[in-house]
Every structure is written in C-alpha cells, then in structure tokens.
Amino acid sequence: MSSHLSYKDRQLLAVIGDEDSITGLLLAGIGHVNEHQKKNFLVVDSKTQVSQIEAVFQEFTERKDIAILLINQHIAEKIRPTVDKYQQAFPALLEIPSKDHPYDPSKDSVLKRVQKLFGDQ
Length: 121
Fold this sequence. Notes:
The protein is of the alpha/beta class. Helix content is 39%, strand content 17%.
C-alpha cells in the first residue's frame, strides 16, 4: 500500500470544542455523519466527562477519513497528557482558542514540539 493511498481519503475536519466553536464550524459546513452514524465533532460542556473527551480524541485520531483535528485549547488542557503524547502527522492536531478562553502559545503541544526542534526552549 503506497502512502499516497492512505492520505487521499482524509477529507474531513474533526472538532472537539465548546458549543460556540462547534456551532460556528458547523455553520461553516464541516459537519459530517458517516455510514456508521459517527459524527466528526464533539460538543464539550460542563457535564462532559474527561473520559469521554479522551475516548473521542482517540477515536478521531484513529479514523482514516480525518485530515485535521481541531480542539479548543482549554479542552485540550483537560486531557493534556494524551494530547502531548500524540505525535502522528495525520490527522494534524491544532489547538484553537474559544470565545471565552484566549490562545496561550505556552500551552500548545505542537508549538512546544516545534520550539524543541529548533532549540528555542
């Protein structure tokens, strides 16, 4: 199996985020439900268990149809060890700000890895 084949089917964005972030991205057209009734997004609120966030993160990072996984940074903080362990190229993992939680570059796992590569830490 050539590596080209494994990447061409990755056409979806997936999102783990708060209601405002998910709503905005769904309005932008990223929503998808596959033939197994699996969604490509998880709305996280105060009642969402950390174990559920972890499980959906694992599911999204193992799916072969997802190219990019967006996660609100304040939600990534809840599962930081799992996020920091994730090192695959696909799906690419991006931490994004939310309306109530500004982006903090010092917490971004990808940015930390890049800084290590270039010796900026």
